[in-house]
Input
Amino acid sequence: MSESKNYSNFAITFHMQTPIMLGHPWIALDGILAHLINREIRGQDYYTLPSKEPVAKDYFYNGPLMPLAQTRDVFHASVAWFDTTEASVATIYKRFAEQHSHLIHTKTKTVDVARGQFKAYTMRLPYVPACTATFYTRGNLKEVLRLLSFLPGLGKKVAYGYGAIKSVSVIETDDDYSLVKDGVAMRPLPLNLGFDSTEKMMLAYKPPYWDKTNVAPCVPPGAKVSWMKEPAKAS
Amino acid sequence: MWTKTEEYHSRICEAEEIIRKAYEKISRPFVSFSGGKDSTVMLHLVLQQDSNVLVLHWDYGRYYMPREIEAEILANAQKIGAKNIRVETSIQYEKQKRKAVNVIGRDLIGRIMPKMKAEGYDCCFLGLRAEESMKRKRRTKTWLEYHGEHVAPANVFPIRRLKWLDVWGYIVSNGLPYPKIYDLYAPLLGWDKARLVTFFDMEFEKLGSPYVDGFLLPGFRNWV
Output
């Protein structure tokens, strides 16, 4: 995508109805958008992707339809910045629903809830009781908002009621704060892009974030940034 | 303060009494030390009665335990007063990385414990507490657990009746060092539920622990 595609700098704020459940301290906007584009391209096929094994990288969309500015392979989209630093833990119960047992076909008369596909789980998941989650980005505002209109919620366990969105507001910003704001990293910044810091971590820096091949030494979000060399220009 | 209460004192006295009784029955014990809060208390209690006791520590390897925490655990054992520390581990942790499961069963219980028995160690002090789970409550009904004469050393559970408040009370009142990872996990999980175990371990996936680890230790997630 080029600058002619109406790119602007803006901050999107999600006003939350319920706490956001996380398995990681950060939610990345480019990851959310890539997921929404992927779902849009695949349509109903999205729901029949293989689930027994992690989905192959080819199944995940990470291409030119992303409405975001890019510096090499890093999208100009920050992680979510919450209005609180508080966090807590909730317990999620995953149980086999007996009332739907006629819908499944098993070799035996019993359903094994100790192992396998219907294994019962009691899981602890951290949540952030944030009222707002703000993403800073540089991209096509109209397209970003169109895609986000299909987003059912933020974070994990949206079907359980977590991460429900009350409203979304947008503020145009003077500068591009998607990578660095006030000398602080706003998203994982790979060191090979010229960033440096006293804090470094092995982090995924582009979608899909679960893919280990996208992991590289990065400046983590929230860390003070310095530059080893002049940063590359956005395209 | 909790450590001034009668309940606390009676439970600590019982733990000391169990250690005393164990030393009357056995000749060559060792202490199993994970580095967590329970084994910290137990190690201190045993060292009060035998300052030369062998301390056996199991290293889960660099893929499950960050090396700085491992170094802190060993430094803590020395600060508590252990002079004789032995660290054992399994090659499986290097071979299988984060896919290594049931290594404790195969290597610690199946290989190291019989070796300890063959070396003449006849008793192992274990920091299990009845409060932790129903399984542990059943297991620690008696303070001594025999495994047969040639299989493995007998297990002694000195702190079996201690509550989590007793454990933290003992640590604070005696100024014992504990891994700083507790200060990270306890505000999220609670001081009663925070435990020192392996991180990003598949065996704890059904409890949701990898999500908590991912939230608190994002830097260790992709360390391998």
Observations:
- The first strand of chain A starts at residue 7 and ends at 16.
- Residues 154 and 170 of chain A are 17 Å apart (CA to CA).
- Chain A has a mean pLDDT of 88.
